[in-house]
Amino acid sequence: MAPHSLMTATVSLLARSFSVLSHTSSAARCTGVFSAYVNPVKYLTSQTNGPPKRPLNGYMRYVMQQKPVETRQNPAEIKSVEIIRKIAQQWRMMSPEQKQPFQEASLQAREEFKVVFQRYQAQLTPAQLQQQAMEKRQRLAKRKAIRKKRELTSLGKPKRPRSPFNIFMSEHFEEARGATTPAKMKSLLEDWRNLFSHQKQVYTQLAEDDKIRYKNEMKSWEDHMVEIGREDLIREQTLSNKKMPGAKTPVVKKEAKSGKAVKKVPAAPKSKATSKTTKSKAGKTLLKGSTKKK
Questions:
Q1: Degrees (nearest 5) of the Cα angle 224, 228, 230?
Q2: 59-81 pLDDT tens trace
Q3: Residue 91: is it exposed, middle or buried by C-beta count within 10 angstroms (0-12/13-18/19+)?
């Protein structure tokens, strides 16, 4: 009986130990999840030679902390986009008190960034400052162009007409030679150059038809933009060709050759002395003519 009781006691002891271990592991997971809310990691990165990077906001800090946790807990088949979507849903469901540590860490990092950025700006030369300003203007212009392109796409602006080579490339891209896109483009360009003129004429005619399509669609689209009050999106050429209602164009006489406007200059009044001299000269010429006839 003693060995049997000893065996049962051993089994019960092992069961208790396994239960304790399972509780401690679950508690560790819970503390790991709550640590993401209480102790957010500070993400303030900077380059060695370049300018310091701007700190992340509260939401991005939460994403950077929760992404490894969600990746470990979810299977490998789930895409990272789905994980980010799940983290975003968690952020929306969080209370302001749960978001507060991340927001406070972001504000603190912004203050530190201001100090570091001022220190970085102080050590730059005038040429470097000028280069930095030019790069900033280029970035802003690029962002503005991207925003405008997105706006035009959302408003349904027609696509530009395709060239004959673009039509040829779109038709034969799948069966083109090469494993990568640049290799396929190179092979298609070689094939296009080796085509005969009558073979290229087919794609030239398709391109001409596409130009007509673009012209008609642009006309209707620009008319619609005028109706909704977005004349700023209309092409300048179209605006110059259209006669806006109520606008009077001034009529200016121009020369045929130079194209410059000719102003009529009033004739200067003649003085009495000049009129007398002209009369006397006219009388002398008449006398000379009468004497010669005689």
A1: 90
A2: 999 999 999 998 888 877 788 89
A3: middle
Contacts of 33 (CB under 8 A, 6+ apart): 69
Dist CA 104 CA 87 (whole Å): 20
Half-sphere exposure (CA, 13 Å, Cβ side) for 274? 4
User: How many residues are given for the chain?
Assistant: 294
By C-alpha distance, which of 122, 63, 64, 121 is closest to 92? 63
Identity of the amino acid at 251: V
Closest CA to 14 of 26, 2, 3, 6: 6
DSSP state letter for 76 = T
pLDDT score recorded for residue 171: 92
Ranges of H-type helices in the chain: 2-38, 58-73, 80-93, 96-122, 126-154, 164-172, 181-193, 197-227, 236-241, 272-293
User: pTM value?
Assistant: 0.50
Q: Which residues contact 117 (CB under 8 A, 6 or more apart)?
A: 51, 52
Q: Check: CB of residue 61 under 8 Å from CB of residue 41.
A: yes
Q: Own/partner pairs for 209-214, CB < 8 Å, 24+ apart? A: 210/161, 210/162, 210/167, 211/161, 213/158, 213/161, 214/158, 214/159, 214/160, 214/161
